[in-house]
C-alpha cells in the first residue's frame, strides 16, 4: 500500500505551551480531503501519540478531531512545569517533529 508522510498532507504541524503544565499540538490541513484521509486512516490517534512520544496514555489530556477547522489537536501533561529546573523546552515549541514521519495510507 502506498503511503504519504503526515508532513506532506498537513499545512501546519506545531507544538506550543498550553499553560505551565501542558504542551498542545496542532495538525491543521488546508484541504478537507487530506484531513478526512488522515482522520479515517486511524494512523493518528491517542494510542499513536502515546507510542510515538513514549508516554502513558494518562499523560494525554485531550485528543480532538475538530472538523470545522480541518484540525487534529492533542495536549500532553508535562513532567515538569515550563521553565523549571531540568525542563528542556520552555515554550513547548520543539516537540512536534516526530509527527512529521507518521505514515498515512493513501489510495493509488
Overall description:
- It contains three helices and six strands.
- The longest helix is centred in the middle third of the chain and has 10 residues, at 32-41.
- The chain is of the alpha+beta class and 108 residues long.
- The model has no long low-confidence stretch (mean pLDDT 94).
- A hairpin with a 4-residue loop joins strand 4 and strand 5 (71-77).
- The chain starts with a strand and ends with a strand.
Structural class: alpha+beta
Helical segment tally?
3
Q: Please report which band the strand proportion falls in: under 5%, 5-15%, 15-25%, 25-35%, 35-45% or over 45%.
A: 25-35%
Backbone shape = elongated
| Helix/strand order | EHEEHHEEE
β-strand number: 6
- Main beta-sheet strand count, sense and barrel state: 4 strands, antiparallel
Portion of residues within helices: 10-25%
The overall pLDDT, averaged over residues, is 94
**Order of adjacent strands in the largest pleated sheet:** 2-3-5-4
In angstroms, what is the radius of gyration?
A: 14 Å
Instruction: Calculate the terminal CA-CA distance, rounded to whole Å.
Output: 8 Å
Poorly predicted runs of 5 or more residues? none
